[in-house]
Amino acid sequence: MMASAQQNLVQYVKPIIGTSKMGHTYPGATVPFGAVQLSPETDTLSYEVNGKYNGDVYKYCAGYKYEDKTITGFSHTHFSGTGHSDLGDFLIMPTQGKLQLNPGVASNPKGGYRSAYSHANEVAEAGYYRVKLDDDNITAELTSTTRVGMHQYTFPKSDQSHIILDLMAGIYNYEDKTVWTYVRVVNDTLVTGYRQTNGWARTRTVYFAMSFSKPFKSYGRKSYDPKQAYRGFWGKFNQEQNFPEIAGKKIKMFFDFDTQEGEKIKIKFALSPVSQENALQNMRAEISGWDFEKVKAQAQATWNKELNKIQVSTSNDNKINFYTALYHANINPTTYTDVNGEYKGLDQGIHKADGFTNYTTFSLWDTYRALHPFFNITQPSRSNDMVKSMLAHYDQSSLHMLPIWSHYANDNWCMSGYHSVSVISDAIIKGTYTGDANKALDACVATAKHRDYEGIGYYMDKGYIPAEKSGISVSNNLEYSYDDWSIAQLAKKLNRMDIYDEFIKRSNNWKNNYDSASGFMRPKLSDGTFKKSFDPKDTEGQGFIEGNSWNYSFFVPQDPASLIDLMGGKRKFAMRLDTLFTMHLPDEFFAHTEDITREGIIGGYVHGNEPAHHIVYLYNWTDQPWKTQAQVRHILNMQYKPTADGLGGNDDCGQMSAWYMFSSLGFYPVAPGSDVYALGSPLVNHGVINLENGKTFTVEAIKQSDKNIYVEKVLLNGKEITDHKIKHADITNGGKLTFYMSAKPKK
């Protein structure tokens, strides 16, 4: 079957979904996997207050909070859906009237350069954002290419119109976060420079080139630098007004214009990880003229092409949820290569990506589960480049480790496990990676044997991590066991049986934290006894990262059959799953965990955070697969809504969204590194995946309805499936998966 004709699918993307409460998405303009994410900021919270972590800053991981009533400006870099943050580079704000260089406070927006705004005057689409800034009567519009953000500001008549470039602003900001800033005013329409910050990424330098559609009449800077012991002899100049070379830690620039009523001033703002020259080259390559509408149309056409890789028919609300999920899934990882192929490496040197696009923003603890497996179906070429990026990271790493959480030529070491090995194994096993598979396996093994990283030495020597040595000893053991299984699968494929034997043995270490007396995964002390004080409902101090034992005790995706045996067989195991989905989890048990809130919980099952994402599919390993079907549909309808607060947890760089799409189509990768998908209950009436190889894979749900959530039978290319699973090749070879739906479970 050939690919289907293009539909207008951009109309179903609502970037505002997830911008309220816990979603942590942003509404601004970006293109698929773009290096620029040009989006509004709605406040200026500091990471710390009086030397302590400021918990409120967590609401601003994406810079924008739907509940806020003011906008402080538009900056060029953002994470989508994360539970920690950085970025927010190069904040631009158009104003008119008396120049104000302080953002002011939300309760009095007129006291600073920020402005009140209304959602009634706000439009957020794939690749385009517009808002009216009420205080200055300026309409702001944003669009983007891969490496360039384009702004269009419609001003009133004024001889005091300004564009502010705030080089101090940032997300998860703190007093000394900006290490150094440099600005060079090349002429009356072109400014270049760079900024280096020390945040989640320790050594992050971003270069820029900024071009105006109209010459500014004057410009200046204000420095907020503290008094330095040594300043050299730059004091010979007045650097505040019309001075072309500025450097310091705390700099704000302003550019002044005369404007007519309705006059549009446009800005092209290009980024580079390498140099000012490369930023300018990126700008010239990606946006030649000043036609804002053309750039917007191009951004939306690029999105539409990506969205058409999956064409579904379902209700309008479900379409909005599905295509917004597909949009969010195609934001990260982000391009980290200039148009000339150069990028900054982990060694802080300049490298040239030879025959691949280098990517960053690998939130791997989240995304190895479903996002990267999703790319192996819908984006195999990009998935190949992502693996190549991980191996380049490994080559440049002084610690000889694959990325844990890759971020702008840094590893921020966030979260646990070494899940690059899962992504790499999955890509090679599914035939996506074209590089040297044996070299990739060597990198996986070296990472998994890095003894001084998060208890790996204890894990290797004792088969578990003693609770005295780590606050997250149990979840680390479970995650390492899964990762080691994925290494073993890769070794088996490459016929390196010595590595297979070593890692398949390691992959059974999870059993060492299983307490048969209580039936839970439990912290174990150095002397081999289980920690005495233990509550499987609690997320605090029980040996787990962002979760509790009720959820993590099911984290053996690589071997559900052995877990079921240990837990007393299929019937008892299904009853335990029933209890998880129906129990009540009082607030006190997750009061100390930012990433878990009531919105993302069903019973005691936490969907709003990742460790339990495979659990609903485990009923397939019991004799009660209809419970997978019912619960999948319940989660799809309860945890995803077409509203600003429509996500029950952080989208986490597309992982929550990938879960939605897989589950809507009726199958899910329980254990990446295997070529098997578990079947569930599709939400769509009909879906077509247009594969990169030119073939199509179709999902059809006969008698689909809100009541018919159970599967009577499933056919693959007309042949009945009885074991509730399909293989990766069944999809990539093209074909048809037909579900016959019913209101009654098939027992």
Q: Can you describe this structure in just a few lines?
A:
The chain is an alpha+beta fold.
Task: Walk me through what this model shows.
This protein is of the alpha+beta class and 747 residues long. Helices cover 25% and strands 23% of the residues. The chain is built from 17 helices and 38 strands. A 9-stranded antiparallel beta sheet has the order 8-9-10-11-19-15-14-13-17. Strand 22 (342-344) and strand 23 (350-352) form a beta hairpin. Helix 5 packs across helix 6 and helix 7 (420-429) runs antiparallel to helix 8 (437-448).
Q: Separation of termini?
A: 35 Å
Structural class estimated from helices and strands: alpha+beta
Count of alpha and pi helical runs = 17
Strand order of the largest sheet: 8-9-10-11-19-15-14-13-17
Helicity level? 10-25%
Q: What percentage of the residues does DSSP assign to strands (E)?
A: 15-25%
* Poorly predicted spans: none
C-alpha geometry: globular
Cofactor: Ca(2+)
GO molecular function, one term: hydrolase activity
Keywords: Calcium, Hydrolase
Organism: Pedobacter zeae
Describe the secondary-structure layout.
Elements: E1 39-41, E2 48-49, E3 52-53, E4 70-71, E5 73-75, E6 91-96, E7 115-116, E8 122-125, E9 128-133, E10 138-144, E11 148-155, E12 158-166, E13 178-185, E14 190-197, E15 204-212, E16 218-223, E17 245-248, E18 251-259, E19 263-272, H1 276-286, H2 292-307, E20 310-313, H3 316-329, E21 334-335, E22 342-344, E23 350-352, E24 359-360, E25 362-363, H4 364-367, H5 371-378, H6 380-396, E26 405-406, H7 420-429, H8 437-448, H9 456-462, H10 473-493, H11 497-506, E27 514-515, E28 520-521, H12 549-552, H13 560-566, H14 570-582, E29 601-602, E30 605-606, H15 625-639, H16 655-665, E31 667-668, E32 676-679, E33 686-690, E34 696-702, E35 710-716, E36 719-721, E37 725-727, H17 728-732, E38 735-742
Parallel strand pairs: 34-38
Antiparallel strand pairs: 1-5, 2-3, 4-7, 6-12, 8-9, 9-10, 10-11, 11-19, 12-18, 13-14, 13-17, 14-15, 15-19, 16-18, 20-33, 21-24, 22-23, 25-26, 27-28, 29-30, 31-32, 32-37, 33-34, 35-36, 35-38
Helix pairs in contact: 3-16, 5-6, 6-7, 7-8, 7-10, 8-10, 10-11
Pfam families: Glyco_hydro_92 (PF07971), Glyco_hydro_92N (PF17678)
Subunit structure: Monomer.
Keywords: Calcium, Hydrolase
